[in-house]
């Protein structure tokens, strides 16, 4: 399983972006129960650090937070296969294929 890296101890600022993420994901209703958010920008701008810090800040509020390394197709496949090894996925008989893992995630 691909473990989520820890955010940098030197992470500072970016509070406006963290607040935006927290607000966006806290609003849930029956029309849009599942939400996604795209963080984009040039390399080295802090996108990963913002995502890591957000995940650390809200971890206790969610049943699952999955870290998928999207560097390339192989790392995505490896990340999804790793997700299939967590106990709840095993209980659901997720077979480890990317499709099965994604199907299971959509059922959560």
UniProtKB/TrEMBL annotation:
It comes from the Eukaryota. SUPFAM superfamilies: P-loop containing nucleoside triphosphate hydrolases. This is P-loop containing nucleoside triphosphate hydrolase protein. The lineage of its organism: Eukaryota, Fungi, Dikarya, Basidiomycota, Agaricomycotina.
